[in-house]
Every structure is written in C-alpha cells, then in structure tokens.
C-alpha cells in the first residue's frame, strides 16, 4: 500500500497523536477519534479502515466465533479462549490479562448493555446470577501474525462515549485499586486492560449494537508487551 492509500482512512476518523503520560488528558477527545499512543501502532491504517466498515475484525485476522445465550456459558468459553492462547506460547501475565479482559467484556455485555426505557435492566443484579439474554452475545477471537484480538458484541447499542470516557478516566486517575475477582462486577477490568497497554477500539450503532475489541500483540515476554504502542478509539455511527 502506498502512502496516499494509507492516509485515506484518516480523513474519515481523525488521529490524535499522544504519548502515555498525556493519555488521561486526551480521553475527552475520544468521540469519533483515534488516539495513537507512542510513535507507531500495529496495523494503524487497517484498524482505522475497519472502524469505518461493517466487518467483525480487520481483514487480516483469522476468526473464531462463540455465541452465548446465558451468562453462565462464559466459563466454558473462557476455557476455549485459554486453549487457543496456549498455542501462541504467550507470557503467563499476558495470558491472564487477556482472559481478564475477555471476562469483563462478556460480563459487561450481559449485565450493562441491556436497557429498557433508558434504564439498565440488570443494574442491581450481582454478576454471580445467571442471565438469560433475550439477545445473544457474540465473542469473536481473532489472530494474525502480529496480534490477538478479542471482540464482544451486544445487540443493544446502549453505550455512549461519555459513559465510556467517565469510566476509563476514573480508573486511570485512581491512585490505588484492587484487581477484581472473576465475576464480582467490580467494573474496572476493562479499564485495567487499557491501563496496561491494551489497544481498545469501540464501534457503536446506537440502539442496535456495541462492539468492544481489544488487541494484544504477540510477544515473547511481558516487558516487550508493555513497550508496544497502543490505540484507543471510539466510532459511534450517527442516526
């Protein structure tokens, strides 16, 4: 791809270049933006193009899809994800981070996404309770030569950029916190993944679907993972 072709996606979704120390101050600019943290991000042009497309993951990814109708199906799905991760021989800390992020994305889709008359249906439901979802939740796990991607899709499209940014800023600015136990609903698992250098891209069609996709570079040690560049982006389609 030549430079003129590579630059075209940016006209649809502006890029804000930042560094890790300034990330928090730039979170308010996330609406319809992509933040590039560091000097270079993996597959930047492909990801920007994907944010403007209807595909589940960028074209270079081989994908496997799981459909969940009940929240209790999560544990079996997480075991399948771990089996796939074992194939890549990733650092154990990175494996744990990926599973935690997957867990949080799935729980958010079951407990936070469903709304009725503007009210979150399961707002006061403990996450140990099994939820029968009227609209199935999809988990798509993909990989290419450089990255592993986890993508969770709900069929509500109830999230908005303000709520996402507020949630993330709270976690980024907290001086101390405890990593949640699986299924406790502490609500910081997703932000924790981003705080630890995971790339996160969000696609929303209001009242139809929300897709949260986390990207993890394939590396040999955790230090190398922490040195990789990062993207955080939101694309909300206009009604």
Layout: helices, strands, pairs:
Layout: H1 3-7, E1 15-18, H2 23-26, E2 34-37, H3 44-51, E3 62-70, H4 74-88, H5 92-111, E4 115-116, E5 119-120, E6 132-143, E7 147-154, H6 161-173, H7 189-195, E8 199-205, E9 209-217, H8 222-227, E10 230-236
Parallel strand pairs: 1-2, 8-10
Antiparallel strand pairs: 2-10, 3-6, 4-5, 6-7, 7-9, 8-9
Write a structural description.
Mean pLDDT is 82; it is low at 1-11 and 175-187. With 239 residues, the protein is an alpha+beta fold. The chain is built from eight helices and ten strands. The two termini are 33 Å apart. It is globular and about 45 Å long. Helix 5 packs antiparallel against helix 7 (189-195). The strands form two sheets. The chain has an eight-stranded mixed sheet, sandwiched between helices. Strands 4-5 form a two-stranded antiparallel sheet.
The H-and-E topology, N to C, reads as: HEHEHEHHEEEEHHEEHE
* SS summary, helix count: 8
Strand order of the largest sheet: 1-2-10-8-9-7-6-3
Q: Which structural class best describes the helix and strand composition? A: alpha+beta
Features:
239 residues; alpha+beta; two-stranded antiparallel ribbon; 10 strands; globular; disordered N terminus
Summarize the structure.
This protein is an alpha+beta fold.
């Amino acid at each position: 791809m030549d430079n003129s072709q590579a630059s075209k996606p940016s006209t649809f979704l502006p890029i804000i270049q930042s560094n890790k120390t300034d990330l928090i101050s730039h979170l308010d600019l996330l609406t319809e933006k992509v933040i590039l943290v560091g000097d270079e991000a993996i597959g930047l042009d492909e990801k920007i193009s994907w944010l403007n497309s209807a595909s589940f993951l960028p074209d270079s990814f081989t994908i496997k899809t799981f459909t969940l109708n009940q929240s209790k199906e999560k544990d079996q799905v997480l075991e399948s994800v771990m089996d796939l991760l074992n194939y890549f021989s990733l650092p154990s800390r990175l494996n744990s981070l990926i599973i935690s992020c997957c867990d949080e994305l799935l729980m958010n889709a079951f407990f936070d996404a469903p709304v009725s008359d503007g009210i979150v249906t399961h707002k006061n439901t403990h996450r140990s309770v099994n939820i029968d979802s009227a609209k199935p939740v999809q988990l798509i796990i993909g990989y290419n030569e450089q990255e592993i991607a986890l993508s969770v899709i709900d069929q509500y499209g109830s999230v908005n950029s303000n709520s996402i940014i507020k949630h993330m800023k709270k976690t980024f600015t907290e001086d101390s916190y405890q990593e949640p136990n699986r299924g406790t609903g502490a609500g910081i698992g997703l932000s924790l993944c981003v705080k630890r250098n995971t790339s996160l891209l969000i696609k929303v069609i209001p009242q139809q679907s929300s897709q949260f996709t986390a990207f993890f570079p394939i590396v040999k040690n955790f230090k190398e993972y922490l040195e990789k560049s990062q993207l955080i982006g939101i694309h909300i389609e206009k009604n």
